Amino acid sequence: MYEILVITHGALAQGYYNTMKMILGEKPEFSYCSLEDGDSSEKLEKKIKESVNWKSESELLVLVDIYSGSPCRSAITQLLSSEKKSYLIAGISLPLVMEAYAQRNQDLSDIVNTLVSVAKESVINVNEELIRSKCNVEDE
């Protein structure tokens, strides 16, 4: 089993937590922290440090909103100073959070690329899908 930490700008991380709580009907088992307006990178790094049991032997999956944004850079700083086996994925989405949560009993190193694929595949141009569906119906 791996731990999950969601780190974002503003209240987005808490929004993912609350949405997962609504979907699951119970409190999800993952941590989150946010870069709030006026926070320094040092303050965010402290929040990250306090959000994870760094002595635990379980792997850690960190999900951030934007690659190279402050949450991502602060996560990298914290992860590099830790011996904890961890993976960092940038570009968070609800399908990614849901899949990561559903798979948390798996070996993270085995599924991290699958999680990235799930995130990529969840972005859909609905207009194209509707046109394709309409064409398929007309062809029948």
Task: Write up this protein.
It is found in: Cytoplasm. It comes from Amedibacillus dolichus CAG:375. This is PTS system mannose-specific IIAB component. Keywords: Cytoplasm, Kinase, Phosphotransferase system, Sugar transport, Transferase, Transport. This protein is an alpha/beta fold and 140 residues long. It has a single domain (3-139), classed as Rossmann fold (3-Layer(aba) Sandwich). 51% of the residues lie in helices and 16% in strands. It contains 6 helices and 4 strands, in the order βαβαβαβααα. Strand 1 (3-9), helix 1 (12-24) and strand 2 (31-35) form a beta-alpha-beta unit. Helix 4 runs antiparallel to helix 5 (108-121). The radius of gyration is 17 Å and the shape is elongated. The termini are far apart.
Uncertain segments are none
Fourth-tier CATH superfamily name:
Phosphotransferase system, mannose-type IIA component
What series of H and E elements makes up the topology?
Answer: EHEHEHEHHH
- Spatial extent as radius of gyration: 17 Å
Largest sheet: 4 strands, parallel
By secondary-structure content and strand pairing, the structural class works out as: alpha/beta
Number of helices: 6
Count of extended strands? 4
Strand order of the largest sheet: 2-1-3-4
N- and C-termini, Cα separation? 47 Å
CATH classification, class level: Alpha Beta
How many independent structural domains?
Answer: 1
The helix content is 40-55%
Strand content: 15-25%
Q: Could you say which overall geometry the principal axes of the C-alpha atoms support?
A: elongated
Mean pLDDT across all amino acids: 94
- The CATH architecture is 3-Layer(aba) Sandwich
CATH topology: Rossmann fold
GO cellular component, one term: membrane
Keywords: Cytoplasm, Kinase, Phosphotransferase system, Sugar transport, Transferase, Transport
GO molecular function: kinase activity
Protein name: PTS system mannose-specific IIAB component
